[in-house]
Design brief:
Blueprint lengths: L1 H14 L1 H29 L11 E10 L2 E5 L2 E2 L2 H8 L5 E14 L2 E10 L3 H4 L4 E4 L9 E5 H7 L9 E6 L2 E11 L13 E4 L1 H7 L14 E7 L6 H19 L7 E6 L3 H6 L3 E2 L9 H31 L2 H9 L4 H37 L13 H26 L4 H6 L9 H33 L9 E5 L3 H12 L4 E7 L8 E7 L2 E10 L3 H4 L4 E4 L7 H6 E5 H7 L8 E4 L3 E9 L14 E5 L7 E6 L4 H15 L8 E2 L5 H39 L1 H9 L4 H38 L8 H27 L3 H7 L1
Parallel strand pairs: 2-13, 5-10, 7-9, 17-22, 19-21
Antiparallel strand pairs: 1-2, 1-11, 1-12, 3-11, 4-5, 4-8, 4-11, 6-9, 7-10, 8-9, 14-23, 14-24, 15-23, 16-17, 16-20, 18-21, 19-22, 20-21
Helix pairs in contact: 1-11, 2-9, 2-11, 2-12, 9-12, 9-14, 9-20, 11-12, 14-20, 14-22, 14-23, 20-23, 21-24, 22-23
């Protein structure tokens, strides 16, 4: 029985090998995309799954009012950890975590790597596989543990154990001995990117000063503090005690960053909350941004739906050629259930072949997609957990049963007498094919419109006036003013450098955010401390008032330039001369109003901005402007001079427009994704349309012949044959336009705060493109039928 089923299955598929090949390719592409979406989802769903026993690990967080709402922060005052250790008995253990970075030297090679400072009980809290050495190495301040990637990168031919790495700091070089090696944490881990670990006491030593005393005793300093609480019933009591004993002392130390209360955040799910911007000050790796998870799933579902619709249409096309076979088998004693099983088996075999094709296609799509995103590392491995195989079985079942069930049950329902007499007509256009074609082209239009909208958005964001100009700008960081002054002389002597300026903070990093008061109102504002010529070098735009006067002590003490957003939030009609209070005690006066500057890019709402004028002694950044044509050459010159002047320091220069490269990367990748979706969706829809047109024409050939005999013109015949499909395309255009408008807005809002709004031209051009492709597809077939000889078509019928 089974052998006969299989024989008939393969014979039937071979007879319609063109349709079969189309289905395998289309469904294979859809399954390949579904595999990518699944692996992408699974990568994020398994974030921090390598960490074992995390149900009793918490981080001490704090709430503060920021931008008129209560915002969670994942950091706590540095002395709090020791206070909790000594005075809060309900806490079973405490551990501090401080991520940083540093310049290291191994023999003659200088490099920069992440440098993480932790308490000695770090490995009691979190799961790290130490392959060489042991956790006790953290007790020795002169020792470090390094990741396997550091070993592969800097010790490719030898054993690193016992070797010395020199860390260059503001207080001079410091040697560390390699005392342990641990496996690299995956990218879907809160500790992904942790490469070098040492005792946190080293961090305190590096940052201690005679003026401020012991760094770890200063409540102005912050750290990430983890606690272990075995009795969860005591969480509320711990939080109450933290507020009662340690909130006031913190707020007295940081009047510019007052906390509302402390709370304990479970480690489980911490990375997801940070990715959703629920928690700021998250000094660990976050999970994937939500759009990076949901968008591929939506794309895969859309492609899979089109493939299933196409599958159903082509299955009906194949089945329609087998009506006499069905009639004869019923006359010979075949029952409907046997025929249904036969057709379902054929569909399942076809889907299985598509699944194989999809896996092969995924072998290429998975690494290509993984390379698109720096936060992603997915691989198609066949020794993965059982969930992957359950997913493949689910896809096979969905496509085989759902997509193939309608043709199987519908075709086998005909009576054999009507089939053999020729009174049963099957094929062409019916309600089901109309619905499927409409849905196919609606999805195709959605994909095309989204591709067009994201392309327009990329252009919009590229041409947007950010309120400053980063083109041709290089930013160089300095630890101290002496290094800055000596290097400035090098910059001054190069005639290709158009301008340069110093500042304490920089636009793309390092600025501060503090509450600013005016009368009875208070708002948080970004504060940028700048020096001479910085305003002009960065091409800020002054709208009202004046700039800072060179070397003016008054301007350094009390003058500020504010942005339009600050004027708006405070509701000033006359901003010049307004008095502001900073740090609760420092009076400042507005001398100028500048155009808004998007210091956070286009991801977050624009913040009020305030510029202050600072003396040269406070400079840490040197901003250099050159023409775009000379920029690479200038950067090479700056790096060469740096190596001569500071041989034990890594060159800190970077192109400032790299800050905008993340937005460009997202735009480019999203455009690729929706472009790919548009091409695949349109291709499969056109194939489905071609199949249905072929069936419809085959069914109506006698009608066409009779009409031609009665005098119908080719144009009239083409209108009659095309009419139904034109209606389908118009309905699909309406449905696709409405859905794509909602989806485009939703996707844009998920990713950006500032973006282009879909316009009429986006929809008009997309609809026109789809109509041209569809009409070109059907017109060739229809024209051939309309010009065929009527005597031939009538005689054949």
């Amino acid at each position: 029985m089974i052998k006969n089923y299989l024989k008939i299955t393969f014979r039937s598929l071979w007879k319609s090998k063109v349709f079969v090949l189309i289905n395998i390719i289309g469904m294979g592409l859809a399954i390949g995309c579904s595999i990518v979406a699944y692996l992408n989802f699974d990568f994020n769903a398994n974030f921090d799954k390598n960490q074992i026993g995390m149900d009793n690990i918490y981080r001490i967080n704090a709430y503060r009012t920021f931008r008129e709402k209560e915002q969670a922060y994942g950091m706590s005052p540095l002395p709090l950890a020791e206070a909790v250790r000594e005075n809060v008995g309900d806490v079973d253990d405490v551990m501090r975590y401080m991520p940083s970075g540093g310049n290291f030297k191994l023999e003659d090679e200088l490099f920069n790597e992440n440098f993480t400072f932790v308490d000695t009980n770090f490995f009691n809290f979190f799961t790290f596989n130490i392959t060489t050495g042991d956790a006790s190495a953290l007790k020795d301040k002169a020792s470090i543990l390094i990741s396997q990637r550091i070993v592969e990168k800097y010790f490719p031919e030898g054993d690193p154990m016992g070797k010395t790495l020199t860390h260059f700091t503001d207080k001079g070089p410091r040697d560390y001995k390699v005392a342990g090696i641990f496996e690299e944490q995956p990218l879907n881990s809160s500790f992904g990117g942790v490469r070098i670990i040492t005792n946190i006491e080293n961090f305190f030593d590096l940052n201690a000063s005679e003026e401020d005393g012991r760094y770890e005793d200063n409540w102005e300093n912050w750290v990430t503090t983890f606690v272990r609480v075995d009795n969860k019933d005591r969480i509320a009591a711990i939080e109450e005690r933290l507020d009662a004993n340690y909130l006031e002392i913190q707020n007295e130390a940081r009047i510019d960053f007052k906390l509302n209360n402390y709370f304990l955040e479970p480690f489980e799910g911490m990375a997801y909350r940070a990715a959703d911007d629920i928690t700021y000050g998250h000094w660990l790796r976050s999970s994937m941004p939500p759009p990076a998870v949901t968008v591929p799933i939506i794309m895969a579902v859309l492609i899979l739906l089109i493939a299933c619709f196409n599958f159903t249409n082509t299955s009906m096309a194949i089945a329609s050629k087998r009506l006499k076979e069905i009639g004869l088998r019923k006359v010979m004693g075949g029952v409907k259930s046997q025929l249904v099983i036969q057709f379902l088996l054929e569909n399942l075999v076809l889907c299985f072949l598509s699944l194989v094709a999809g896996v092969i296609i995924a072998l290429f799509l998975v690494p290509a997609y993984s390379e698109m995103w720096p936060f992603l590392d997915i691989r198609l491995s066949f020794d993965q957990n059982i969930n992957f195989y359950l997913f493949l079985i689910g896809v096979l079942t969905f496509t085989g049963v759902i997509a193939g069930s309608y043709p199987a049950f519908y075709v086998t329902s005909f009576e054999p007498a009507s089939i053999l007499k020729g009174t049963s007509k099957f094929g062409g256009v019916n309600k089901m094919t109309n619905v499927l074609l409409t849905l196919q082209f609606s999805i195709s239009l959605i994909a095309i419109i989204l591709g067009v909208v994201f392309y327009q958005n990329a252009i919009y964001q590229k041409e947007l006036d950010y309120g400053y100009d980063l083109k041709g700008a290089i930013s160089v960081y300095f630890d101290d003013i002496d290094s800055y002054k000596s290097y400035e002389n090098v910059v001054r002597s190069n005639p290709q450098i158009l301008s340069f300026a110093g500042s304490e903070y920089q636009i793309d990093r390092g600025y501060r955010n503090d509450p600013i008061k005016n009368a009875d109102k208070e708002y948080d504002a970004d504060i940028l401390h700048i020096g001479d010529n910085f305003f002009e070098t960065m091409d800020f735009k002054l709208l009202d008032g004046r700039g800072f006067r060179k070397d003016s002590e008054t301007d350094m003490k009390e003058s500020v330039i504010v942005s339009q957003e600050m004027v708006r939030v405070f509701g000033w009609e006359e901003p010049l001369g307004q008095k502001l209070i900073w740090m609760d005690t420092v009076p400042l006066y507005v001398v100028g109003v500048m155009q808004d500057a998007y210091t956070d890019g286009l991801w977050a709402p624009i913040s009020p901005l305030m510029l202050r004028y600072v003396p040269e002694e406070d400079y840490h950044y040197l901003t250099i402007k050159a023409s775009s044509a000379d920029l690479i050459k200038i950067n090479e010159y700056l790096e060469s001079e740096w190596k001569t002047m500071f041989p034990d320091k890594m060159y800190t220069g970077q192109f400032m427009d790299e800050e905008l490269s993340e937005a460009s990367l997202v735009n480019a990748n999203v455009l690729k994704m929706f472009g790919f979706l548009g091409v695949i969706a349109t291709f499969m829809s056109v194939i489905g349309l071609f199949s249905i047109v072929s069936l419809n024409i085959l069914k109506r050939m006698k009608e066409v012949g009779v009409r031609k005999v009665l005098g119908a013109s080719v144009g009239h015949l083409m209108t009659i044959l095309n009419k139904n499909f034109i209606i389908i395309l118009l309905i699909a255009s309406v449905i696709g336009s409405i859905l794509s408008y909602m989806m485009a807005g939703a996707f844009m809002e998920m990713i950006w705060t500032y973006h282009v709004d879909p316009g009429v031209m986006s929809f008009a051009s997309s609809i026109l493109l789809l109509l041209v492709i569809a009409m070109a597809t059907i017109s060739i077939k229809v024209y051939k039928a309309a010009t065929a000889s009527p005597t031939e078509t009538i005689r054949t019928e």
